[in-house]
Design a protein that fits this description.
Blueprint lengths: L4 H11 L4 E6 L5 E6 H17 L6 E5 L3 H14 L2 E4 L10 H10 L3 E4 L1 H14 L4 E4 L20 E6 L9 E5 H14 L7 E4 L6 H14 L2 E4 L2 H6 L2 H10 L3 E3 L2 H9 L3 H5 L8 E4 L6 H10 L10 E6 L6 E4 L8 E4 L1 H5 L38 E4 L3 E2 L3 E6 L13 E7 L10 H8 L12 E10 L2 E7 L4 E3 L2 E3 L1 H9 L5 E13 L2 E10 L1 H6 L2 H16 L3 E7 L14 H10 L4 E5 L9
Parallel strand pairs: 1-10, 3-4, 3-5, 5-6, 9-10, 11-12, 12-13, 25-26
Antiparallel strand pairs: 1-2, 7-8, 13-14, 14-17, 15-16, 18-19, 19-20, 20-21, 22-23, 24-25, 26-27
Length: 599
């Protein structure tokens, strides 16, 4: 039988018992503690013995744990016992609990493992949703007798539920099996050449798919050490992450677009020059899509810190495929194409002519663009830059499919990304209809082979996968496709008082026609000093000049007001609902007489 993650962790505990599996840092960048593989195995066995004795094998266990060690030990304890872990984002006191309540209800949790601080304000509301759930405080695990799992988990057994971002009323828990975990971890290890000598340095939330699969479970699979720091420590001072990478000689470290932008924006040239990032082999970026400007700025800014362009690793994944779907070629520069935006708006890809006859500052295929190179988020250019997310990973197949006819499309045509393989999960927990629609798609005339419909749009070129946006977020004006991230990038650069990565473009219904609305956060200075009419005019003029469409509504917001996922990604559907409900506190909202149409 194929070994599970439990089997692999037990082996590491036997072969390298004294090696740290995890090192935690506090907000002052000092070590808070260490857990060896042997200690993790022992504590996981203690919890597993209790879960089995309470007949909780096969039952859902809600994890309400901010402490990193308590989270990891509880998660692995669930794996040992054959229980189904449910990791979640924990709201702060006095914050809305609707999403957490809905998850507890949807998962029908049988047990809650919580820290005492978290339980002090969450136990009562959670108990209203699942009154029969057993509660266990994480510090009680110390008092359990040593034991071991009496349940032999199989590859098809559920390991945990990964709840995806969505509306508060209908959360969806992705069913990740033990087999999915091993398949995806094997793909990650193979794709980025990991070994026991690797080292991850992570600030990402541990309950989120990127943080959990890539930075908590991958070290357990391969057997290397991970350094964990609180997410808030990174957000407040991104330099803390970079200094930790240099200090611990981190090799596997990454995050979404905004993390790399924040590192550039919040560090000085002197700070960068004092860093040694030469150990950093894989700087993964899994945002959809990875921005060319983000790649360019980070590589240029941290070259003095000995960061290599070949370390930047664009990739693509999602919870429904455990995590990892495609990845860049390890040890090579990011592949960036310049394409015709007019053709892309019509669903086809026209690559710009070979740059051999162009100026030296034009990027070549497979090269990182320079600072004055045209890219997706620079207005007024003839081409836009799109970044390759690489090739399908070990055991995964990817197709580009027409979402309406369900027919496969040739290279160079934009369509929905479909995937299958051992990493694709079992479906959504207790949602057979949504499972069938998303996980059991079949191409027209393709027989019984099933695919995951990702909901993402993209195209292939020379085997590379390029992400262009989300199908549900696509804005269609008079038959032309407009990707919201393009409109957002253009709007952002139209005025200095607009916050970086702080805008959302959506389509609203205006008397039966699509009308574009842009909600954008102002900088702190801009909230107090900006002239709303001038900023609004700048946004409209820039979008009209670059994309040939009019913006119907411009909403200027206070910093931090846009809805985001727990990993920092903007939530366009939630923003659209808030605009329609009039829920934003805006500095100014203007609506012209004409709100729709091309120029």
């Amino acid at each position: 039988m194929t070994p599970t993650l439990v089997d692999i962790l037990v082996r590491h505990a036997e072969e390298q018992p004294g090696r740290p599996a995890y090192i935690t840092l506090d907000q002052s960048e000092q070590e808070a503690g260490r857990r060896t593989f042997a200690e993790l195995d022992a504590r996981s066995r203690r919890l597993a013995a209790w879960l089995v004795s309470e007949r909780l094998s096969g039952k859902t266990i809600l994890l309400l744990l901010n402490d990193a060690f308590a989270f990891v030990e509880s998660f692995t304890g669930c794996l040992y016992a054959g229980s189904i872990a449910v990791p979640v984002s924990i709201p702060r006191p006095n914050k809305p609990l609707a999403i957490l309540r809905a998850i507890a209800r949807d998962a029908d949790v049988a047990c809650v493992i919580a820290g005492r601080t978290e339980a002090s304000y969450l136990r009562a509301p959670i108990a209203e949703e699942v009154p029969d759930a057993v509660w266990l405080y994480s510090d009680e695990i110390d008092h359990f007798d040593a034991g071991g799992p009496s349940v032999r988990v199989r590859p098809d057994d559920l390991a945990f539920l990964q709840y995806t971002s969505g509306s508060t009323g209908s959360p969806k828990g992705v069913m990740v099996t033990h087999g999915n975990l091993v398949q995806n971890e094997a793909a990650i290890q193979h794709g980025v050449r990991l070994s026991r000598e690797s080292c991850a340095v992570n600030w990402l939330p541990l309950y989120h798919d990127m943080g959990l699969i890539g930075n908590v479970l991958q070290p357990l699979y391969t057997g290397f050490t991970t350094v964990l720091m609180p997410p808030v420590a990174f957000i407040q001072r991104p330099g803390r992450w970079l200094r930790a990478i240099a200090r611990y000689r981190g090799t596997l470290c990454g995050g979404p677009n905004f993390a790399y932008d924040l590192c550039v924006d919040k560090t000085t040239e002197e700070e960068r020059a004092g860093l040694d990032l030469s150990s950093w082999e894989v700087a993964y970026n899994g945002s959809e899509p990875v921005r060319a400007r983000t790649v360019q700025r980070f590589i240029e800014a941290f070259a003095p810190a000995r960061f290599r362009a070949t370390s930047f690793y664009p990739c693509y994944g999602m919870a429904e495929s455990t995590l990892y779907v495609t990845g860049h070629v390890f040890g090579t520069r990011p592949t960036i194409l310049q394409v015709d935006p007019e053709a892309l708006a019509l669903g086809t890809v026209r690559i710009a002519p070979s740059p051999s006859d162009a100026a030296d500052d034009t990027p070549r295929h497979d090269e990182t663009p320079r600072g004055d190179t045209p890219h997706r988020d620079t207005p007024g250019r003839d081409t836009i830059a799109v970044v390759s997310c690489g090739f399908p990973v070990l055991g995964t197949r990817v197709l580009i499919v027409d979402p309406d006819t369900r027919t496969p499309l040739p290279e160079g045509t934009v369509g929905e990304i479909w995937a299958n393989g051992g990493s694709v999960c079992a479906g959504y927990y207790r949602k057979p209809g949504a499972t069938d629609e998303t996980f059991h798609a079949r191409v027209a005339g393709g027989g019984d082979e099933r695919f995951l419909r990702t909901g993402d749009l993209g195209f292939q070129n020379d085997g590379h996968l390029y992400i262009t946006g989300r199908l549900k977020d696509l804005i269609i004006i008079r038959g032309r496709n407009h990707y919201p991230q393009d409109l957002e990038a253009t709007a952002q650069q139209s005025h200095p008082f607009l916050q970086r990565d702080g805008g959302i473009a959506v389509a609203l219904d205006d008397r039966g026609q699509a009308a574009i609305a842009i909600a954008h956060e102002l900088t702190r200075e801009g909230w107090h000093a900006a002239d709303p009419e001038l900023v609004t005019a700048a946004v409209r003029e820039a979008v009209a000049a670059e994309h040939g469409v009019q913006v119907g509504r411009v909403l200027l917001l206070k910093p931090g007001r846009l809805p985001r996922t727990t990993s920092g990604k903007l939530r366009r559907a939630a923003c659209r609902a808030m605009i329609e409900a009039g829920e934003f506190d805006v500095r100014e909202t203007l609506t012209p007489a004409t709100t729709e149409g091309t120029l």
